[in-house]
Amino acid sequence: MSRRFQELDWRPTPLGELVLRRRRDVTVDRDVLEIKLGDEFLMSDLFTVAEVELARRGLAELTGTDLDVVVGGLGLGYTAQTVLADPRVHSMVVVDALEAVIEWHRDGLIPTEPELTSDRRCTFVHGNFFELLRSPDGLDPVAPGRRFDAILVDIDHSPRHLLHPSHGSFYAPEGLRRLAGWLHSGGVFGLWSNDPPDEEFLTALSSAFARARADIITFANPLQGNEATATVYLASTAADTPRSS
Asked: What is the pTM of this model?
């Protein structure tokens, strides 16, 4: 049996203290890997269903091949892993503002199977997703101006529960239209949220995209012995012209 609690790494960041820890949870009788930022739990490998569904449902909206995908927010890597499990994916850019999280994956402190770092389709970008979105070069510094088939985001807890106030403009119609501009025609935006569907945000999505909806994801909560829910928002741009490969 492992130790009851182990702090694997700690880093100061502009957003607060970032901690990667492993603890033994007697309720589920296994080790649990967690990332905390200040007092906020960013991610736990006890609850990964919605992160997986963000990628699975987002890519299911696309019919093409040789797909180019952006994942905003790396965390424990479950969304990124699910993207790479789709054989249609040609490339994936993962953007994370916390350099330590990228290093934890590269150093093996966060184990993934298969490893993200060994897949040549995966590129890590250390940067602020929201700032890159506003820049003229866009989300891939190696290929300025590049557009994508899907952009999947899991950074804030919800459109209202933000890690930093500067993220707020992204969830307004203008910010969403800016994101839509980095997608190919028929491209998909997906967003994870820990809160129930937000009608005001859905209205903003509908103003920026041709189609928008909110899917409620249900999963087991073994700590409380009941079911919990999260939301995956999905929005698509108009399919005016075929995407060039």
From this structure: 0.93
